[in-house]
Write a structure and sequence with these properties.
Elements (H helix, E strand, L loop, with lengths): L1 E6 L4 H10 L5 E4 L9 H10 L2 E4 L3 H10 L6 E4 L11 E2 L6 H9 L2 E3 L3 H15 L10 E7 L4 H9 L11 E2 L9 H8 L6 E7 L5 E8 L9 H11 L6 E3 L18 E8 L2 E8 L3 H16 L11
Parallel strand pairs: 1-2, 1-3, 3-4, 4-6, 5-6, 7-9, 11-12
Antiparallel strand pairs: 7-10, 8-9, 10-13, 12-13
Length: 310
């Protein structure tokens, strides 16, 4: 029996992790009384008592929580952006390589990936690692996501009985081309050039699709769509949560995997131009589902245990 504490259980990510774990027989969820959840000493006691701590907190609070931990055996899985490129932290995407998986299994500090970053990295890391594109490739990516990714405040805005008409349409944000996921997108993929990233939020609750276009004449290994599809299929052949779709599509919805912890990869395009796409749930493989998967790997449990849609 493993003791698990979710620090920040009241947020969207924390609630989703709690829902996945509440019926498990191999974990005991440690819960602070409402009046103690912001009490530093009470939180510290829970952190040191737990085998696994999920941090579902703003960056500053996540750093504070890590500083509170004194039990060297406590594994911390941080869902904030605070430690995704920090030295000594494993990046929680085990499908990328045996080294990533080993770091999660052996480490005590695991940074859970960001939602947009998960799709981008799933598509781009294999290309760079295999030498199909160079680290200096001028990547552009756009991502369509449901509004749940914005947390409680954005959810309330979209669900308000009286709201701005603008919310009826997709809205691009991060117009300065700065976004909190860019450091991990750049660093984990080993890029020497930061990608141009265009995130878009739309009027549906959950699900996202990340798109990365490619020019074959800028690739070190020039591939047609079928060749790129075969490459991804081979790269993720042992992945339990990532599959590569073999068909062609006139449309690609972004909410088809809402409620699932899986990810699907699609390849489209034509001669000279390719389009790689990753579809998943921003609350699943993009957040809480990935966090539970990382816990399973870290504890040596069945990787897909109590995940959804697998």
């Amino acid at each position: 029996m493993y003791n698990v504490f979710i620090d920040g259980r009241e947020g969207t990510t924390g609630l989703q992790i709690y829902d996945r774990l509440m019926s498990r027989k191999d974990v005991k969820l440690l819960v602070l009384p409402e009046e103690s959840r912001k009490d530093t000493e009470a939180r510290k006691a829970m952190i040191d008592k737990a085998d696994v701590v999920f941090l579902c907190l703003p960056d500053a609070a996540a750093k504070e929580a890590v500083a509170l931990a004194e039990n060297p055996e406590t594994r911390i899985i941080d869902a904030s952006t605070a430690h995704r490129t920090a030295p000594g932290w494993a990046y929680g995407f085990p499908e990328l390589s045996p080294d990533f998986r080993r770091a999660i299994a052996e480490g005590k500090r695991i940074a859970n990936p960001g939602c947009h970053a998960s799709g981008f990295i799933a598509l781009v890391y294999p290309l760079v690692a295999a030498g199909i594109v160079g680290a200096d490739y001028p990547f552009v990516a756009h991502s369509v996501t449901g509004y749940s990714g914005g947390g409680k405040k954005m959810i309330a805005e979209y669900r308000a009985s009286e709201r701005e008409a603008e919310l009826d349409s997709p809205r691009q944000y991060a117009l300065t081309l700065s976004h909190k996921h860019l450091p991990e997108m750049t660093g984990v993929c080993g890029l020497s050039r930061e990608p141009v990233f265009q995130p878009i939020v739309a009027d549906y609750y959950a699900g996202m699709c990340v798109f990365v276009p490619l020019f074959s004449d800028l690739m070190k290994t020039k591939l047609a769509p079928d060749g790129l599809r075969d490459f991804y299929r081979d790269f993720y052949r042992d992945a339990k949560l990532i599959s590569v779709d073999g068909g062609t599509h006139a449309y690609l919805g972004s909410n088809n995997l809402a409620g699932s912890d899986r990810m699907e990869i699609f390849v489209g395009g034509k001669e000279g131009q390719l389009l790689a796409c990753a579809r998943f749930d921003n609350l699943g493989k993009g957040a809480s589902g990935a966090a539970v998967q990382n816990m399973n790997v870290a504890l040596g449990l069945e990787e897909t245990a109590f995940l959804r849609g697998v």
